[in-house]
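re: that chain from earlier
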Amino acid sequence: MKYVVKIGEQEVTFDYDESSGKLTNQNKREVPYDWVEVAKGCFSLLLNGKSYLLYLEPSNGSYRLFTEGRMISASVQDEQNVLISKLVKAHKGEPKEQIIKASIPGLVTKVFVKVGDSLKKDDSILTLEAMKMENLIKAPCGCVVEKILVEPGQTVQQNQELVLLKKVE
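^ sequence. v structure.
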């Protein structure tokens, strides 16, 4: 399986064959290595004929390596996780349009906005009464009201669309 190892700003791809334990670099050359955990979080690594004593500490999904008096940030991902990370980054953030839906069936009692209104996060949009309790529906982000799909006095079902918002960038 292919792995992408990022140490500092340098990124290297390796292929690791689990059945043989062989490690090859992106040039298909075998990388001689051996490592042993000598104490919890402390490893002896022999890489390309050079010996290292490493202290490895997990840190927010990656690792901090302490060796030769320096701290080095490192991450290891298989190629599938690299692809998933790229897709997530490409689609990161909230969608440009958002539909507010009823979380419960109820009665719309008040609508505080009109089409074209600019809202800040947590501004009130409408109230939905259910079981004699009023639920205040608020803006999830800075946005503009694109369309209001309900009116006061209207009964709505769970997951029914109430308001269409367009995120302000």
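The chain has a mean pLDDT of 84.
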